[in-house]
Amino acid sequence: MQLVKYYSKIMKTITLISDWKLRDPYVAMFKGQLLKAVPDANIIDITHAIDSFSIEQTAFILKNSYSSFPEQTLHIILTGTTLSHHTLPVMVEYDNHYFIGEDSGIFSLMFAPEEKFKAVQFNQENEDTSILEKCVQMTGALWNNKLKNQVTPYEQFVRKLQFLPEHDENRKTITGQVTYIDTCCNAITNIPVDLFNKTVKNGHFSVTLSSSKHITITHHHNFYDPQENEVYILSNRLGFIELTLNNSRLAVIADIHIGDKVEIQYKISH
Q: Do 239 and 137 fall into the same domain?
């Protein structure tokens, strides 16, 4: 399978995402190893503030940010890495980007089975090197055009179940869940703005949330509105419905957590 292209005239951009934080020396150590393997690499941190072991949070952030980088960018996923000497990293080629990491289920959260992508697994089994070192070796081989003989096709991905939004036309409901809480404590759902606009249109709606504190939301804005003094839903720039409150930590006040059910009930205006 042809996975590797010729890179000599392409900027070698590498992004990193992890739950490693920045207090410890591990991010710096890994960057140093990458620069030894690819001296002209441009290494960019997406974030190292992922909640510990949260591949769900990692998938959300990376899925919504990777396309902002130039094509042929390599994204290295380090969240929850086992540091095993027996685990072999996987590389996925998708949308003219490359993703390397341990198959902990992260790829099934990033890419739907019906999406077109290629995947290979590093096949250099060396018990003296950890998976991190193998990721570095795989990165060096990619840009030195030596990857072809060091990988084998990979198909048996670890599957993580995803809760997808559901639209019930009979009941006139859209059911989703909170998938991410940002640093301002706004709650981002997995309900696409396009689905909301298509179904609710200009009709009346109410949003209920399965947190410990009862909240009913009836206001919607296409942008952040500092004049709004009630909890409202926002069409955010990621393309999802977001729950927010002006100058307030909504998720803390309302005890909202990732995985909480969100239901939108609507009535079409005639």
A: no
